[in-house]
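A protein record pairs a chain with a discrete description of its three-dimensional fold. The following entry can be read in just this way:
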Amino acid sequence: MKTFALRLHPGQDLKQSLVAFSREHNLRAGFILTCVGSLSRAGLRLAARPETTLYEDNFEIVSLTGTLCPDGSHLHISISDGRGVTLGGHLQNGNIVRTTAELVIGELEGVSFSRLPDPQTGYDELVVTEQKPGSQEQPR
């Protein structure tokens, strides 16, 4: 496994920055190990809702988890406000760093992630492909 560490600065979009980092480093099977920081605006797609909901406040990033690959990402975030009220959902564009976002990203070696339409769910879902030396890639 390879690891990468980075810090995002005030005003940067969390999701857009992660997607750009993934592309710049050609991550084939990336995932979030940890993230701490704060947001001034949050864009979340809540459970079973198709639209993005925007929130403006001072938020702490409680957790960020998910996968990164060349053809997409699947990231969930939990944030809390000044009263400790916590909410979470799918990370969308519009999550603006307030003071910092400190991230450690991992990349699995020997596999690649991709996303393909799944007729059962209606979403592009994760496909894990094993990369054995000297052989064809085999989906898991």
About this structure: The first strand starts at residue 2 and ends at 8. The helical segments are 14-24.
